[in-house]
Design goal:
By secondary structure, the chain is α+β, with helices and mostly antiparallel strands. The chain contains three helices and three strands. It has one domain: Factor Xa Inhibitor, CATH 4.10.410.60. The longest helix has 8 residues. The mean pLDDT is about 95.
C-alpha cells in the first residue's frame, strides 16, 4: 500500500508543538484593522490550540 500523503492545505495552517498539541493562527487579523481595538488585535496575535471537537479531523489531515 502507498504512503499516506499529508493534506497540503492543513500543513500550511496547523503546527504541532513539542508536547503534541496542535495550534493554529486566529482569524480576523487580515484587514479592516482600524475598526478593531489595539487590545483585540494583540490578543489575536497569539496562536490558539485546536478545539477538542476538531482535533481528530486535523490529526487525520496531518497524517498523525
Amino acid at each position: 500500500m502507498p504512503k499516506q500523503k499529508t493534506h497540503s492545505g492543513a500543513k500550511k495552517r496547523f503546527k504541532v508543538t513539542g508536547s503534541g498539541k496542535v495550534t493554529h493562527e486566529q482569524a480576523n487579523r487580515r484587514h479592516l484593522m482600524e475598526v478593531k481595538s489595539s487590545k483585540r488585535t494583540r490578543k489575536l496575535m497569539s496562536d490558539e490550540v485546536v478545539s477538542k471537537a476538531d482535533i481528530k479531523k486535523v490529526n487525520r489531515l496531518l497524517g498523525r
